[in-house]
Model the fold of this input.
Amino acid sequence: MSVPITKILCPENKFNIKCPYSMKPQGITIHNTANDASAKAEISYMIGNNNEVSFHDAVDDYRIVRGIEHNRNAWHAGDSATGFGNRNTIGIEICYSLSGGDRFIKAEKLAAKYIAYLMKQYGWGLDRIDDKRIGTHQDRSGKYCPHRTLDMGINRFYEMIKQEYYKLTGTNSNTAEIYRVQTGAFFNKENADKLALELNTKGIDTYRVKIDDLYKVQCGAYLNKQNAINMSNKLKLMGYSNFIPGLNLSVEGEKQKGTKYKINCDYPNIRSQASLSSSVTRLATKGEIIYVTCIVNGFLKLSDGTYLKVGFADKI
Done:
């Protein structure tokens, strides 16, 4: 990195308090200090007391300071002595979050750059953000932390990390293939909001996008195909029909069974049963590939058990 890492390391006689276990990092947990002290001051205070609270690195507006090497665990995630966060992730504190302002903005930018650097160093892909192995203190144990970063928008911060990652790895967002899991598309925004809220209450993160007058509810955008398939599987087990545009695989990751068709018109209804009076599970997209297992009462039966009226797709 262009910014060097300053080390003020925890003494070995405090390992039993601050970092008692060896660790091979599998992810990162992001924090805000809820204080206005520098990175050096935060690390010095952390290793100077005898509290069973610790973290690996602190980042301020111009410096990264390490207090615990990444081959030792730290007590920062609040998810128990055996939790993923406490035992498998690098804890990074972003400074100056109490008052915010220009210093905090600069600290966040440096933290994003540093996290991207660590991702490249350990050979991690952006899928670790998708599946929250790179995540927040809130992801680990529910605490509203990193508080100011969350207030300002965690997806905004993740996008900062991604942009730094693209720079370091020579890739870019335009060439990276993204797998999006879609579980609804509506002309009425209120219906999209209702579905999104229903999924949120069941622990599924959603976001809504408007494309061609349709409000689409999506449950993740993944660089890793298998992570997208896993989310699709999870939604199907919960009773939510869904699909991954551009991915001609079943949710189990095997080739779809049935005859290959292509949707030939804009937004035909995919229904729960072979009847015009049955509920609409989603709207299909022109050009979308579907697989048909049989024809029932004038409807194509799709491989996921839903139905499309004959005439809205052509065999290919």
